[in-house]
């Protein structure tokens, strides 16, 4: 490869020495080059300016929406899973599952999570099987065409509290408790928002009109939410005696659990990203070295114009072109 480049470049040099008029080459060459340089540059500038303006506009729009929003901004919390090198807190997920099961599952579904997903994350296979067997699932039809009920299996998804949306609405004053599987990804400021929402119930300010069946929560858009305060000290008990079941601990755990349900493969993706960064850094370094090595013959070459040699060659070839 390098020797090929060498021979091509020496051939190029020979032809220039022999036949090209240097003055015209220089003149026409430089103006052309300048023209392409400028047009290339101006395109880049335009592209940069348009992208920058679009970014600024988006930022300004986002900020103005934030500023005019009708709820309090959630406080930023220090989640254990924040950061590229931090895995989700598996013990928190285990406790959060208990909170979900004992509190939230009376109203909310978790359609996209099956019992088998818990295995290896916060339960052993036997534990997850025991959890699944505690529910009854309608299955069928059997050989006689009848539907029957059986205990749950690992492959079953979490049960829904209501048979359909209408039943859910009529039991909750017309409001629909959304599926919680992806709620952390679906809300702005995910974990921080949900934590603030669950722990942020308070008395409405003077003059705030609350309709029947609504509760005041400054973190919810509009301030009136159809879900009452559910998280409080000791609404669940933990197996681990070292962890006090305070309201904020319970909220933290259920949020950690819901973070896991919205990204069950989050930890694997972090590990994959790390591998990609390490391998591409390694490959990038090798490619850079090879590129330098291959081009070194051309990059270290110095091309010198020697008028005497040029004149001699011109005389020899009898070139009559004007200077
Ligand atoms: C008594 C029933 C009930 C229980 C129990 C319940 N919720 Fe809700 N939840 C609702 C209803 C109803 C809504 C819809 C509120 C609305 O739209 O005003 C809701 C809404 C939500 C929302 C969506 C808020 C938004 O931004 O739209 C989240 C998140 C949520 N609940 C989380 C939970 C968690 C976590 C638990 C368990 C700790 C829980 N809920 C327990 C009834 C319930």
Automatic annotation (TrEMBL):
Binds 1 heme c group covalently per subunit. GO terms for cellular component: mitochondrial inner membrane. The chain crosses the membrane at residues 272-290. Heme c binds at residues 104, 107-108, 227. Gene3D superfamilies: Cytochrome c-like domain (1.10.760.10), Cytochrome c1, transmembrane anchor, C-terminal (1.20.5.100). It comes from Drosophila rubida. Its cofactor is heme c. Electron carrier protein. The oxidized form of the cytochrome c heme group can accept an electron from the heme group of the cytochrome c1 subunit of cytochrome reductase. Cytochrome c then transfers this electron to the cytochrome oxidase complex, the final protein carrier in the mitochondrial electron-transport chain. It comes from the Eukaryota. GO terms for molecular function: electron transfer activity; heme binding; metal ion binding. It holds the Pfam family Cytochrom_C1. Keywords: Electron transport, Heme, Iron, Membrane, Metal-binding, Mitochondrion, Mitochondrion inner membrane, Respiratory chain, Transmembrane, Transmembrane helix, Transport. GO terms for biological process: mitochondrial electron transport, ubiquinol to cytochrome c. Belongs to the cytochrome c family. This is Cytochrome c1, heme protein, mitochondrial. InterPro entries: Cyt_c-like_dom_sf (IPR036909), Cyt_c1 (IPR002326), Cyt_c1_TM_anchor_C (IPR021157). Component of the ubiquinol-cytochrome c oxidoreductase (cytochrome b-c1 complex, complex III, CIII), a multisubunit enzyme composed of 11 subunits. The complex is composed of 3 respiratory subunits cytochrome b, cytochrome c1 and Rieske protein UQCRFS1, 2 core protein subunits UQCRC1/QCR1 and UQCRC2/QCR2, and 6 low-molecular weight protein subunits UQCRH/QCR6, UQCRB/QCR7, UQCRQ/QCR8, UQCR10/QCR9, UQCR11/QCR10 and subunit 9, the cleavage product of Rieske protein UQCRFS1. It is found in: Mitochondrion inner membrane. The lineage of its organism: Eukaryota, Metazoa, Ecdysozoa, Arthropoda, Hexapoda.
């Amino acid at each position: 490869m390098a020797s090929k480049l060498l021979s091509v470049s020496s051939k190029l040099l020979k032809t220039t020495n022999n036949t090209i008029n240097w003055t015209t080459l220089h003149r026409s060459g430089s103006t052309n080059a300048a023209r392409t340089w400028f047009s290339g540059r101006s395109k880049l500038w335009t592209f940069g300016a348009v992208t920058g303006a679009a970014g600024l506009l988006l930022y300004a729009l986002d900020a103005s929406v934030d500023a005019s929003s009708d709820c309090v901004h959630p406080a930023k919390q220090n989640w254990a899973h924040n950061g590229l090198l931090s895995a989700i807190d598996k013990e928190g997920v285990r406790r959060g599952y208990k909170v979900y099961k004992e509190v939230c599952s009376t109203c909310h579904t978790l359609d996209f999570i099956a019992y088998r997903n818990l295995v290896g994350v916060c339960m052993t296979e036997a534990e997850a099987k025991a959890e699944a067997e505690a529910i009854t699932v309608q299955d069928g039809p059997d050989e006689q065409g009848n539907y029957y009920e059986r205990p749950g299996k690992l492959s079953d998804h979490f049960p829904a509290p209501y048979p359909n949306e209408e039943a859910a609405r009529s039991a909750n004053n017309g409001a629909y408790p959304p599926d919680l599987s992806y709620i952390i990804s679906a809300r702005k400021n995910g974990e921080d928002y949900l934590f603030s929402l669950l722990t942020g119930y308070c008395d409405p300010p003077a003059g705030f009109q609350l309709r029947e069946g609504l509760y005041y929560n400054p973190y919810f858009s509009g301030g009136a939410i159809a879900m009452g305060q559910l998280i409080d000290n000791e609404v669940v008990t933990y197996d681990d005696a070292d962890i006090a079941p305070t309201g904020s601990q319970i909220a933290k755990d259920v949020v950690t659990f819901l973070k896991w349900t919205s990204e069950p493969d989050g930890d694997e993706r972090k590990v994959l990203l790390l591998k990609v960064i390490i391998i591409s850094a390694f490959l990038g370094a090798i490619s850079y070295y090879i590129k330098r090595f291959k081009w070194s013959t051309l990059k270290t070459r110095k091309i010198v114009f020697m008028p005497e040699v040029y004149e001699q060659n011109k005389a020899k070839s009898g070139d009559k072109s004007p200077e």
